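Archive transcription. Copying these from loose printouts into the bound notebook so they stop getting lost. Printout 1 of 2:
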Amino acid sequence: MIPLLLEPSVFGVVIYLFDEHLDLDDETLELAATLGEQIVLATQRDRLQQRLREAMVLEERERLAQEMHDAVTQSIYSLALFAEAGRRLASAGNFERIQEYLTLLGDTAQQAMKQLRLMLYELRPAVLEQVGLAEALRQRLEAVEKRAGIDARLEVMEPIWLPPAVEERLYRICQEALNNALKHASAHRVVVTLASTPDSVTLGVSDDGVGFVLGEAANNGSGLNHIRERVAQLNGDLIIETAPDRGTNVIITLSLPAHLAIQEFPEPSIY
């Protein structure tokens, strides 16, 4: 019997059963103790990963709460203002300007619907653990972008295996880039690519939206900052290509450890 020590207490034991009586020498006892230590290390690693997942969930909830306050609440408030302005114009008999406010009312309502659809999707239970990164991205494009009338396509090269924590961060990076395209870029077409080489993996998000001046955008919003932070956590390389009226390309490249290297490269699948 080998105790499993996880400071400050014993959390379990490993019991070795033998078919017959044995006189165990010091080498065998040392081996048994080493196996117990490996179980302890695996348990510690599992607990750390669980804490990391919990921290990431909390981070996403805080981000969604902030976006709900900043975006959706503001849109609903704008709807109320436009409706009130239209009512006053109607009372005053100024029917020419009513059309202007009705147009603003409709545009704001459409934007609010996009934002609410996005929030509802992000509140769904995580699907990464069940279906993997590629399928989770496909489901996102189907549920949000395509329903919003955007021509969305996923190009992915498989097979590829990544640790769950890496898949989670890559998914959140892609999600942030897609959110920017949906909410700010007025994009009509979005392409997500997931490609690999023997020692790296690359995620790209491209849209044909209005683009922006990169230096100015970094100071005006937190979306790009969130992307930069997540890429830094992965020790990856980030390239953002954009200009006014030229669309935006977000490209993330991660180096893969040798034991994660890809061995075969089938033709890309297009969804």
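Printout 2 of 2:
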Amino acid sequence: MFDAKQFIMEKVGWIKQEVGDEKAIAAVSGGVDSSVTAVLGFKALKDNLTVVFLDDGLMREGEPEAVTKIFRDMGIETKIYDVKGNFFQAMKNLTDPEEKRKAFRQTFYETLANAARELGVKVLLQGTIAADVVETVRGVKSQHNVLEQIGINPLQKFGFRIIEPVRELYKPEVRLVAKELKLPDSVVNRRPFPGPGLSIRVVGEITPEKIEMIRKATKIVEEESESLPSFQVFAVLLNDKATGVTEKGERAYGNIIVIRAVDSKDAMTAESTKIPWDRLLKMKNRIVSEIQGVSRVLYDITSKPPATIEFE
């Protein structure tokens, strides 16, 4: 049986040994994996660790402020880098999901490398978990935080080495560690969010306008599904349009939003959630009334396999 307390003791000691007298940074996104990694790093390194948040413009609404508050409440300051332009430029005109993921990965590490040089550090603590590695190695999809398994040496390419304290854990074990570390429930129970953020919840090319549309849809779906026990519930903007009709009876040609909800233990397999019909209707009503330009809302009932949880 997994012992979270023992794991924490061992990993704090391991981080101390791995980093030694060097300084390090921990990149956080607001999710449980990176948050656990940052807190383990802080316990081990104290003032020798700088926690950083890359504001890439692809996160959920209010994410930078929420992340900063969570860590400040725990006595850990977070340094925010506004790098939205870097990421939108890197993924401009890209439509293939793997190309988008690789462009995100390259920009993510280049940005971290700049931050590391500014801070004078050569060690990065990263919240990679077992599922990230498995899916990348199997070729299902490239996870942005898996490098050495695909032949990229981060020290040679970006100038820092990476240590990954929770690499052998799956999501349920990470949540147990988060709880033992006294992270708030909002983090412990937070549903998974992809590393490349909303960029892979927009099928096809991303633009600031499309990201803002899916950000609004994400907020609506998360608010209306908060009490559901689903592993993950989110919205996707398709790279297509459908004919609709306005309340005035006029033709409209609008965007298509898909709602996706799944039940899973470790994200390796998943079944679609049977969301109550009235809840789905409420999500649909809010999406079409609060987001201009949406003419149709769909619900995805595909399991994993044959589908992946995310669309891209």
